[in-house]
Amino acid sequence: MTISGSITADALTKDSTFVQYTERNSGNMGEMDVSGGSSFSLGEDQRAVQDLVRRVATERVAKRASEIDRTAEYPQDMFDLLRELGLLTLPFPPEFGGSNSLLSSCVAIEELGRVCYNTAYLLLVQWTPIGGILAGGTEEQKQRLLPGLANGTLRAGFSLTEPQSGSDVSGIRTRAKRDGSGYRLSGNKIWCTNAAVSDFILVAARSGEEERGAINFFIVDRGMKGFEIGRKEDKLGARGVPSSALFFDNVYIPPENMLGREGEGFKNVMEALNASRPLIAARGVGLAQGAMDLAAEFVSNRQAFGQSVSDFQGVRWMLADMAIGVDAARLLTYRAAAMIDAGAKGPEMARAAAVAKCFASDTAMKVATDAVQLFGAAGISNEYPINRYFRDAKVLQIIEGTNQIQRNIIARTMLGSTKRKV
Ligand SMILES: Cc1cc2nc3c(=O)[nH]c(=O)nc-3n(C[C@H](O)[C@H](O)[C@H](O)COP(=O)(O)OP(=O)(O)OC[C@H]3O[C@@H](n4cnc5c(N)ncnc54)[C@H](O)[C@@H]3O)c2cc1C
Question: Is 95 designated active site?
């Protein structure tokens, strides 16, 4: 089956009227406006993306989802499909062929996530490095890396986590020592998603002369001498996109591969991460919607005590609660994406992004858990797809900052920092 036509240039052009977000003064966190101006909806362009991706997801992606999960093999065919459709370009600025719309990007991820978490993940990993490069990269780095990420000729990873430090980013030990005008990188990383297929990876390391040094990001190209990628993790969920350990043994990093000025890289990249949290939230929304749809279909076709299971009030209320959660998660996610598209930054954005990520992934976990329950024993059997949703949902509560860390971010905007580290 062929998909007639890829996304048109018009559909990829950001509709600036879809959001009327008014930036308000957020100086006092107690009175922070996190309404996002309260007015946003999907515009014509987002609807075009939604229609196309929903059709492709149903016709092409859904039938591959279980196999990708079972074999845990990288779905190159799905990557090629996303590339052919022009979907990789969605969040990029127009000069790199994109629409500069995080809301459109969220819609695409949501639609893929309804049927296949792993295919939605392909978009997400492709997009994770963009914010850091745009925020801290030189013009030369942007020209070298962004067009390839947008057209799919380059793939990348983003590496912060180390064996002794995940949530506590300040605990990283990978070190970048000055060597002439460049650096020498030494240390280990774990859980770098996409590393096995990446052309380059943004790697966090400590640099500078002081004992601990500031955290900066370095562009590590595949094949650099002393750089090795370890075996891939055997995972509970998110199985189709590999996560691997990385090893750096005195790897020479030329000056043109330092991302941002020394001492500034970390702040830039962490700010950029605010922009990728709505994408994780969108994957939660899609997953929850998909699990709910499957549960509704199953109980409608299943009989017990001489009636359809969907006629028991207790079951109907479970489904209604799922729908309430999915609706709320979607609105929070679209709000956060619309705020990013309108240029929101700082604590206000950090809070809205954390709220969306936390609520949408907690909703995905709850909906998937209840959906497995409604399937009964069939929910435990690998003959049915629902347990895949359950396993993938758990990943969402952990990645890009666990949901405890999201709650810490939210509480900080309300109460300020604690004296003790949280
Ligand atoms: C599928 C997958 C893909 C990943 N991909 C990447 C990637 O591409 N790049 C990358 O760099 N990393 C990646 N990670 C790693 C991920 O970002 C970390 O696992 C995550 O940040 C949590 O770190 P940790 O596992 O070390 O848990 P820890 O930080 O050790 O936390 C353990 C527990 O303590 C809780 N906790 C910790 N600190 C606090 C606190 N202050 N307050 C309350 N609770 C707290 C945590 O929430 C958690 O429940 C990936 C992980 C997974 C599972």
Answer: no
